[in-house]
Design a protein that fits this description.
Length: 240
């Protein structure tokens, strides 16, 4: 394995060692928070400590940052690896400057979203963060780059795509961070139910991410193997 191959493992390594354990903790606190609320409404008391709600919110915020971060990291590797391979910094400096600016702007928008308190600014930074993720992910379409995109999206099989699952999860996590204030201010609990439904869907997508990510690790060859394996006929499963 050369440095490029080791760099490709950073994204899945962080996902396995940090993000997925964090998902488990967030789900655990979410379940306890829900059970405590039901027990308090029914029996008037609960043995579950009242701090679980606060812990759930704090870990949920960290999860959002981790998901957005690992999403950007997963897109940064193929973007800059292919850019170096194709000498894009020399041949297409304007395009590369735009992409670097988009990465920086997306990270900055997420930081400001964490700090925003008024609704209008939370809406603004939610849109900017989500838009930045989408622009980076679909950069070949936006920049009208010829040939295949640097980020492999599996467009021909989008319903089982690691990329598309990740994009939906990332947007859901950004939205969940943005509506925290609404959840606490809404007496009718409508925003709370929206939060629960969307994050149950996100949990299913996280499971799908584990499966599709494992599949992609099996399919992506080492750098020195690419020229040989890409000559194979993947439809008929034969190689020269």
């Amino acid at each position: 394995m050369n440095p490029s191959d080791f760099a490709a493992l950073i994204h899945p390594a962080i996902a396995v060692t940090f993000v997925f354990p964090l998902i488990g903790m967030v789900v655990n606190f979410a379940w306890q928070t829900r059970q405590r609320r039901l027990q308090s409404a029914g029996e008037g008391k609960s043995k579950i400590p009242p701090t679980v709600g606060r812990d759930h919110v704090q870990l949920g915020k960290r999860l959002t940052g981790a998901v957005v971060g690992i999403c950007l990291l997963g897109m940064a590797y193929p973007t800059f690896d292919k850019a170096i391979e194709n000498q894009a910094f020399t041949k297409q400096p304007g395009e590369m400057a735009f992409l670097i600016l988009m990465f920086a702007a997306t990270i900055a928008s997420l930081v400001f979203l964490y700090k925003a308190r008024t609704r209008i600014w939370r809406i603004v930074f939610t849109i900017l963060t989500g838009l930045g993720v989408l622009v980076i992910g679909f950069q070949d379409i936006i920049l009208r780059r010829e040939g295949y995109g640097w980020i492999f999206r599996r467009d021909y099989e989008w319903q089982f795509s690691h990329f598309y699952y990740g994009m939906v999860i990332t947007l859901l996590m950004i939205f969940s961070l943005a509506i925290i204030e609404e959840i606490y201010q809404d007496r009718s609990n409508r925003w709370r139910y929206v939060h629960i439904i969307l994050n149950c869907f996100a949990l299913l997508l996280f499971i799908g991410q584990g499966m599709t990510g494992t599949r992609d690790l099996l399919e992506i060859p080492l750098s020195w193997q690419e020229t040989h394996l890409y000559k194979c006929d993947f439809v008929n499963k034969t190689c020269p």
